[in-house]
Amino acid sequence: MRALIDGSSANPATADASGPGTDLDVDGDASAPAVTPTVRAFLRRSRTWIVIAAVLVLGALIVMTIQGGARAPGAPLAADNPAPAGAKALVEVLRDHGVVVTEARSFDAALDAADGTATVLVYDEYAILDDRRLTELSEATDRLILVEPGFTALETLAPGVRFAGAASGPIDEVACDLGPAVRAGSLSDGQRLVTVDDEAADAGWQGCFRDGDFGFAVASGPTAGGAELTIVGSTSVFANETITEAGNAALAIGLTGASDELVWYLPGPGDADAADAPSLAELTPGWVSPVMVLAFVVVIVAGVWQGRRFGPLVVERLPVHVPAGETSRGRARLYARTSARTHAVDQLRIGAVVRIARVLRLPRSAGVDEVTDAAARATGRDGASVHRLLADDLPADDRALVDLAAGLAELEAAVQRSLDPRSAEPTDRDDPTGRRP
Q1: What does the alpha-carbon distance between residue 15 and residue 419 come to, in Å, rounded to a whole number?
Q2: Could you give the residue ranges of the DSSP H alpha helices within 316-397?
Q3: Which of 6, 117, 339, 372 to pair with 182, CA 20 to 30 A apart?
Q4: How far, in Å, CA of 154 to CA of 148, rounded?
Q5: Alpha carbon of residue 319 to chain centroid
Q6: What pTM value is reported for the model?
Q7: Within the chain, how many helices (H) and strands (E) appear?
Q8: How far apart are CA 126 and CA 131, in angstroms?
């Protein structure tokens, strides 16, 4: 506290710590209401940001709900996916019947697992595999199943087989002699169709499960390398949610269980050939670059046109003298607005200790304990109560802060009266701290 006494000339003594509309009466009359910020006041001041945050949170929840409802959990037709779109039910049945199912996570793994005798099932949802890799895969096995193949797969492995849209409903016309198809007898609704032209038919291709004159749900024939290729137009034959409908299960088990080993391969982004991938410039439409240049030029022109132009510097004479009382009230309002009662109490006590030490003719090096003892002897009060008033007590709210300020003012007046009974209040009206009588 010695440093506080030495720095008395740089700190206000009796700051109005109650904020706008509230003044501290040094004689102890503090009837102004407390301005401690309440939860309601905080919510009222922050309602704009609260509304914005609520809107953002609500929007995020809506997006998550929509995405969660639109996207099935797990990868579609994945061998380990028990969701409706997965194929774990079929895989578990095959394993129970002694079929070794290998889940290939990459093209190289699928190529290694296809040892010539294994059946390879490929579901290339995003048409990632190019013609070269499709050809390599067909040459590595004797039996290949393509589920919902893309245009590249049909052109590469089954020329003459074309897409023909969706089936009109369930299909019960087998229309071929393929063993698994004959045992299935029918397929459920939701099939996709292909057609087989005359050249493909002459090459040995046949269609199964005819939907009138529209096309076939399944097509089977040889590849250029001599492998047996079966094209299934829809994943509904293998998916968990539809495999038990009609003859889907019989067809799926008959195709995938034709050999003792099955390679279940779902191509991923890592299987794309980076050398054949188009560059960003090739994917960008030709009009994008001119539009970006034009937009850049427009932004610069608008900035120059509407930009603020700085004129010459203006010399302004600023006030060099601010009344101490005005500074005290300004700081007090800041303290009240931020509920900085501890800082306000420190300022009030510093001023009180400095003035009491000055009245009692104590040296500037006197500490708080010395000032407390001298004030207690001068006023006849208990030393512990004076020490609590000048150093220990901390106000819990604005009411306690007002009471403490009144107690400090009363202590100063008592010290002044002990030396000059005719004076009930301080006579030093030129106090640099800004305290008013």
Answers
A1: 26
A2: 324-337, 341-359, 368-379, 383-387
A3: 117
A4: 10
A5: 50
A6: 0.53
A7: 17, 9
A8: 14
Structure token pair of residue 229? 């290729």
235: which residues sit within 8 A by CB, 6+ positions away?
Answer: 76, 77, 85, 123, 147, 148
Rounded-to-integer distance, Cα 30 and Cα 33, Å: 9
Per-residue pLDDT tens digits of the chain, which is 437 residues long: 333 333 333 343 344 433 433 343 434 444 444 445 577 777 777 788 888 888 888 888 887 777 655 555 678 999 999 999 999 999 999 999 999 999 998 999 999 998 878 999 999 998 889 999 999 999 999 999 999 999 999 999 999 999 999 999 999 999 999 999 999 999 999 999 999 999 999 999 999 999 988 999 999 999 988 899 999 999 999 999 999 999 999 999 999 999 999 999 999 888 876 666 666 776 677 788 888 999 999 988 888 877 766 667 777 777 667 777 787 788 778 877 777 778 888 888 888 899 988 888 888 888 888 888 888 888 888 888 888 888 888 888 888 888 888 888 998 888 888 887 665 444 444 444 444 44
Tokens standing for residue 301: 């022109």
CA-wise closest residue to 122 among 255, 243, 215: 255
Cα gap 216→218, rounded to integer Å: 5
**Angle formed at CA 350 by CA 346 and CA 352, multiple of 5 degrees:** 115
